[in-house]
Each structure stands twice: as C-alpha cells, then as structure tokens.
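Form 7-S
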Amino acid sequence: MILYPIMYLPKRTAFRCLSRRVRVHGYANTTDLTRRWQVDRKTARTALDQAGVLPSTVHASPRYAWADILRKIEGWPDQAIALMDLSVPLRRTAEIAEALSVSCPTVRNYGSLGRLHEVRLTERTVRYAMPHVCENQSEEKTEGSG
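Output:
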C-alpha cells in the first residue's frame, strides 16, 4: 500500500495511533474532527457550517463524510484523499515552525505561497499538514538516540 508522502507516521507514534485509524470513505463525528484539527467542538462545527458540509441522514447523531471534509474544508485533491492516513493530526503554526526551525511568520508565508499545505478552518483558525521532510528528521533523531 502506498501512503501519501506528507502523511507518514513517525515510528514512535505508529502503534499508538493505529487503533484510531479511520477509513476515508467512512464517517466522522465532531470528536474525530477535534482530534485531527486540534480545535474545540465549537470551532469544528463552525468550520463544517461555513464549508456547507451536511451531516449524514443515515446516522442518528450527526456524522459527516470524510471525503466531503477532506475535499471541501482541507482542500485535498481526490488522489491524495484515497491514500490519506487520518490518524495524523494537522499541526499548529508553532509546531511546524519548531519542526522546521523557522519563525511562525515564515510558516504563514510558506502556507500562503503554497510551500506548505494550509487548511483554513475558520477565519482565524489555520492548521498545516506536517511536511514529509520534518517527519523523516524526527524518525532519524529517534532511531539515533536509542
């Protein structure tokens, strides 16, 4: 199975996250979204409402199709959606800045220029996908220290 390059799990978290792995063609509730986006429930609901993602009519409690969420809110192309690992959360600006050893404004510039995949959840809430390069560096540090 081929994984989308940005979404590899670091080795130290692989076993912990496998139990929460979700199928892309499945459904997500607001708790799944708050974990992935690292936001509160109100922000998750606001992002869903602004993007026009409607809940499934099949389920009693509100659940949303992952494909709609990834396409409409996160802006991923269809080819990437099919190969995505949803257990990897999106990162805040400060987390990406620390991983890349740059400042927060630089991360925002990279996002606006398209060098990082920027996900604008609401007007004030922005998250980024962890670049493949950063995750490889964290794996090397983990392997070399043990």
